[in-house]
Amino acid sequence: MNKKVLLTASLVAVFVVGTFGASSVAFAQYMGNVGSGGETGAYTLEEALEIQKRRVEAAAANPASGSGTPYLDASGVGGAAVISAAVFGGIAGAFFLKGRSGKYAAMGRG
Fold first, then answer.
1. Which of 8, 73, 88, 92 has a CA-to-CA distance to 25 between 20 and 30 Å?
2. 13/83 Cα distance (integer angstroms)
3. Are 83 and 72 in contact (CB under 8 A)?
4. Which of 25-39, 49-63, 67-81 has the highest mean pLDDT?
5. What predicted TM-score, i.e. pTM, was given to this entire model?
6. Under a CB-based contact definition with an 8 Å cutoff, are residues 65 and 59 in contact?
């Protein structure tokens, strides 16, 4: 395929996706329940604060049930770096060992 045609098609695709992506709108969550007639229920700021206060108290009373901390936290950024280094290092090591043998390995090496 002609490189100019491929490049042009790629640029057009990027601009079209960007145009449609920018036209989507994100709406914030409204406060209140919607009734059968479409009206919004009475859910005041004070009620919302009281519910959030109860949630925080429940999480503090039951620490084993989870408090929203991320999985595999391992005490912050350092622990996450160690975990990711072990995972990706293991994968790289497996590829390295598999690459030393097989159909396409150079003869006389290893």
1. 8
2. 38
3. yes
4. 49-63
5. 0.32
6. yes
